[in-house]
Request: fold
Amino acid sequence: MAGGKSTPKKDKMLKVSSGTMVKSGQILLKGKDFYKAGINVKGLGTLFSGCSGKVYFTRKKTSHGKVRTYLNVEPISGKSAE
Reply:
């Protein structure tokens, strides 16, 4: 176990869970490909919040029958989305 190589890296993972409040520009996901950017989310490999709000997930089926999971941010009501 030289150099700690038996331990998986913790930097490439989901950083927030569903229902979590996030700020604009906050990192939501790093280095995973099985989540796609949804509403108010930007980025490809690293997904960022486009506005302040609450995180939620949606699942949609593509035209080829594959189910994809999208990471979305619902803007805080009462404030304008950035």
Notes: The beta strands are 21-22, 27-30, 35-37, 41-42, 46-49, 53-61, 67-75. The domain at 20-82 is CATH 2.40.50.100 (OB fold (Dihydrolipoamide Acetyltransferase, E2P)).
